Amino acid sequence: MDLWDPTLPIYLQLRARVVHHILSGTLAEGQAVPSVRQVAADEKINPITISKAYQMLVDEGLLEKRRGLGMFVSVGAKERALQDEREIFLTREWPKVLARIQNLGLDPAQLIKGAK
Amino acid sequence: MSVISARGLHKAYGSVRALDGLDLEVERGRIVGLIGPNGSGKTTALKAMLGLTGLDRGDLSVLGSDPVASRGELMARVAYIADTGILPKWMRVRDLLDYVGAVHPRFDREVAEAQLDATQIDPHKKVRVLSKGMHVQLHLAIVLAIGAELLVLDEPTLGLDIIYRQQFYEGVLNGYFNETRSILVTTHEVREIEHVLTDVVFLHHGQALLSLPMAAIADTFVKLTYSDDIRLPAQPLSTKRTLSGIESIFRGLPREVLAELGVVSTPNLAELFVAIVEQGHA
What we know:
Helix content of chain A is 61%, strand content 7%. Chain A is mostly helical. Chain A has a single domain (10-115), classed as Arc Repressor Mutant, subunit A (Orthogonal Bundle), CATH 1.10.10. In chain A, α1 packs across α3 (47-59) and α2 (36-43) packs across α3. Chain A is elongated. The termini of chain A are far apart. Chain B is an alpha/beta fold. Chain B is globular, with a radius of gyration of 21 Å.
C-alpha cells in the first residue's frame, strides 16, 4: 500500500514525479496539472502536502498559477527542468559514477564508445 | 479560533480513568488523527466532543461552544460517522433523504443524490438491506450534503473491504474536505490514513503522549537502520532486530549525525507509536 520512500518527504517525491512528467512530455507546457483536491483523493494524501509540492514547483518556475483556473505547466518548463536535472547529474551523480568506474578499473572512454 | 480546544479533560467511569488530563487542539483546515489502542480513551474523547457525555473536569470548546450545553445547535454544524451503522434501518433511502431534508437546516438534497448516483445504492431499498459498504456510502453522501464544519470519524472503515475503504477516503478528500473544514478521525488502520493526516495525536491511558503536525515528524524523529552493534550517539526510544538489520528510533537527533552510522528514514506512525508507548512503559 505504501508507495512512498520513507527516506524522503512526500512533497519532494511528488515534486520529482511532476518534474519527471514534464521531462518525459506527459505533462506538456501550457497543460493543466491535476488539482490539489484530485491528487489528494487519488493518492490518499492530505492537500497541504500537495500544495507544498506545487508551491515549490511554482517557485522554481516550472508551474504557474492562473487565478480561478488552477496550476499549469509554464512555458519553457521543460528546458528549465532539463537544465536543473543536468546540473544535479553533473554536480552530484556523475562524480559518484566516475569514482565507481575508476574503482572498478574501467576506462571511461571505452564505456562511452560502447554506449554509442 | 480553534474548531476543537480541549484542556485537561478528565472523565472517570468508576475507578477507570478514561480521560486523564487530555489536551487536544483541532484547527480549521486540518485532518487530525487520534491514534490509540483499545481502552485509551478515544471513544470517550469523541463522545465528549459530540456532547454525548459530560466531563468530570476540564475545558472543552467545539466551534466556540460547550458541546453539552449547545448540543442541538452544534449538531447542525458537526457530522459524525462511526463503524456501527447508525442510520435508521427501517427507513427507505429515499425517505431518509426526505427526513434529513426536513430536520436539518443545511441539507442540500441535490448534493446527496449526486453522490448516491455514483454508487450502486437503490433509493427505493431500505437501509437494512444495504451492505456495510453501502451503508457507509449513504452516510457519507448525507454528511457531504450537510457540509458540516467538523467531521468526526470513529473507525469509519472498520469491516469494509479494500475497495470501499479507498472509496471512502477518496470521497472525504474529494467531496468534503477543504481549508474551511476539519476532520477528527480515530482508526486502527493507521497505515491507511497516515498520509491523509495533517496532525497526529497519540492517546494512551487518557492522555496525549504526542501531539504533532505530520510535517514536524521528520524533524523530530529519525529511524536508523544499521547492521552491526555500533556505539549509538544517544539512547534510542526503541530498538528492534529485523531482516533489514537493526532499527532504532531516535527523538531530537539531527539526521546528519545518524546518516554516518547507517540508513536514515522517517519512522511511520505505527513504528512511532510502538516506540513511544514502549518508552512510556520503560
